[in-house]
Amino acid sequence: MNRRNLIRLGVAGLASGIIVPKLVLAGASSSSMAGGVYYTKDAPGRWSKKAAGHLPAIELDKNADKIGVRIVTGHEMKGYEHYIVKHILLNQDFEFLDEKLFDPMKDSVPISTFELTNYSGTLHALSVCNKHDTWLNFIEV
């Protein structure tokens, strides 16, 4: 293979690595990923019997322009054997807002609290289990 063909092949490979994933994901809605990338109450996938203990519950406390967000997962913390790794809070566009990591040797219950200012829209909460993957729930603010 001559040098020019090698350069063309390299450029084509680089372009396909950038463009193709965007084309594939552009048509994917968040609901089409449920049960594949993450699990929900309505799409528990292979963990249908695990939804009750893994789906994060979201509670809001609204005071003026501040919103307190409390996420609770009804899951036991069995040391490093089986536990909730973290809670992640995302905005309506699935952009990262905050997270709380849990230490299964110190945290007996997976509860996290967050404070938001002047937020409206959908909040998404993720609960990540070390054995049963990631679970998503949401609430309107």
What's a concise summary of this model?
This protein is of the alpha+beta class. It has helices spanning 3-26, 30-33, 51-54; strands spanning 57-63, 66-72, 84-90, 96-101, 111-117, 122-129, 133-140.
How would you describe what is shown here?
The chain is an alpha+beta fold and 141 residues long. 23% of the residues lie in helices and 35% in strands. The chain contains three helices and seven strands, in the order αααβββββββ. It has helices at 3-26, 30-33, 51-54, and strands spanning 57-63, 66-72, 84-90, 96-101, 111-117, 122-129, 133-140. The strands form two sheets. Strands 4-3-6-7 form a four-stranded antiparallel β-sheet, with no helix packed on it. The relative contact order is 0.18.
Tally of contiguous helical segments = 3
Helix content: 10-25%
The biggest sheet amounts to: 4 strands, antiparallel
Quaternary organisation = single chain
Calculate Rg over CA atoms.
20 Å
Instruction: Indicate the overall shape.
Output: globular
* SSE-based structural type: alpha+beta
Average pLDDT taken over every residue: 84
Instruction: State the order of secondary-structure elements, H for helix, E for strand.
Output: HHHEEEEEEE
Strand content range:
35-45%
Query: Reading side by side through the largest sheet, how are the strands ordered?
Result: 4-3-6-7
Cα separation of the termini:
60 Å
The counted number of beta strands is: 7
Which stretches are poorly predicted, pLDDT < 50 over at least 5 residues? Answer: 18-29
Secondary structure: elements and pairs:
Elements: H1 3-26, H2 30-33, H3 51-54, E1 57-63, E2 66-72, E3 84-90, E4 96-101, E5 111-117, E6 122-129, E7 133-140
Antiparallel strand pairs: 1-2, 2-5, 3-4, 3-6, 6-7
